[in-house]
């Protein structure tokens, strides 16, 4: 990649082309050395390295979906029948085969006895409850027991006609042994980890978390908690991006805020970059007289360019001392949009985590205008009725409006005017 001399007219790169360039930049993170095998719960939020095939079927055996009686459906044709009660099947036991003409009390999750092919829920039986446990907790299944004065337990039960398969959860009805349980690249959330546990898999090989060195820049920028002298502003980018990166599974290292002195930024980068997989800076990439990031990157294979996107147009990309580098613009909303549009999707593709944003369709609740040749990313709040309300205007300094938003609203390049009611793509934040 080449450095653009300051001020040279730049041809804007499309959002898709820049997203591809960022994905390409992060490719080194995808390597066998950058994987680790972790106990399930420690793998939360990580990307799965290999496909996982089910080592067993789920359920592993046919089992009951209800508390009731395991029966042979053929014994209950027509109006049903009185069946002799045989010893019960509690969950966790391996039952005897069910003889014709009998019914086995069975509990939810218990194995269907061989010969049985249906379960009648207890509510449909007469009597419609199991005997109460005695004082010692044991249930007398065979004796003549008074059932709350309603019926006598006499060792038989009346059951209605029941179709084969009723309330039977067949072996393998969730997943069969050998089928693909999870695809490589899946981001492991609670449900995916729960599935691995159900399959009896105790640990899993995932991509290692990448470490990012995050540097915010600007003579005007001071840490929250400090006095705010005239002309100064508080550093919101550092917190905004560190939080977004942490949520996306990155390990974040923050340097002190860099002044606009390139020597100082260089010193911060040199100190931090050897232990980082990626460097992200904010500010100092556009066309001002003191663009500290541009100056610090002189001599490095870093390109500063304009992406056809608003906000987040000015971008830097390349490597610093061999470490992948992204220079985001300084405006807070531009930073977050840059992260969401470029870095987050590249991490998803490369490390399998975070899970990609789900693109949804929503109807605008107001008209909207957008520059012809730019992909505009507005902020909005998605309403329960499926409409989206824009929060704030186009300005990339509108941090308060961003904080009131729950979606990014996409207006692709080429679309200039949208009416209330028009559909747009939104990404849930
Ligand atoms: N002549 C032009 N000027 C600008 C252009 C342009 O094309 N031609 N592009 C504008 C756009 S778009 C953006 S975005 C910004 C990008 O500027 P820089 O990346 O160089 O960022 P700075 O100038 O350092 O800061 C921009 C803005 O953001 C505030 N800022 C910076 N850092 C932080 C921080 N950590 N926390 C909160 N706010 C921060 C800074 O004070 C500025 O207001 O350039 C436009 N100009
Ligand atoms: O790209 Mo700037 O981010 O439009 O404000």
Features:
alpha/beta, Molybdenum Cofactor Biosythetic Enzyme, Chain A, Molybdopterin biosynthesis moea protein, domain 2, Molybdopterin biosynthesis moeA protein, domain 3, 4 domains, six-stranded mixed sheet, 7 helices, elongated, binds molybdate ion, MoaB/Mog-like_dom_sf, EC 2.10.1.1, molybdopterin molybdotransferase activity
Structure report:
The protein has about 425 residues and is of the alpha/beta class. It has 4 domains: about 15-35 and about 210-350, MoaB/Mog-like domain (Molybdenum Cofactor Biosythetic Enzyme, Chain A, 3-Layer(aba) Sandwich), CATH 3.40.980.10; about 40-60 and about 175-205, Alpha-Beta Complex (Molybdopterin biosynthesis moea protein, domain 2), CATH 3.90.105.10; about 65-170, Molybdopterin biosynthesis moeA protein, domain 3 (Beta Complex), CATH 2.170.190.11; about 360-429, MoeA, C-terminal, domain IV (Beta-clip, Beta Barrel). It has 7 helices and 29 strands. The protein has helices at about 15-25, 190-200, 235-245, 260-270, 290-295, 330-350, 400-405, and strands spanning about 35-40, 50-55, 65, 70, 80-85, 100-105, 120, 145, 150-155, 155-160, 170, 180, 205, 210-215, 220, 235, 250-255, 280, 300-305, 310, 315-320, 325-330, 360-365, 370, 375-380, 385-390, 405-410, 415-420, 425-429. Strands 17-14-18-22-21-19 form a 6-stranded mixed beta sheet, with helices on both faces. Strands 7-4-6-5-10 form a 5-stranded mixed beta sheet, with no helix packed on it. A hairpin with a 4-residue loop joins strand 25 (about 375-380) and strand 26 (about 385-390). Helix 1 (about 15-25) packs across helix 6 (about 330-350) and helix 3 (about 235-245) packs parallel to helix 6. The protein is elongated and about 95 Å long. It starts with 14 loop residues before the first helix and ends with a strand. The relative contact order is 0.14. Ligand LQZAQKY5 binds near residues 221, 238, 288, 311 and 396.
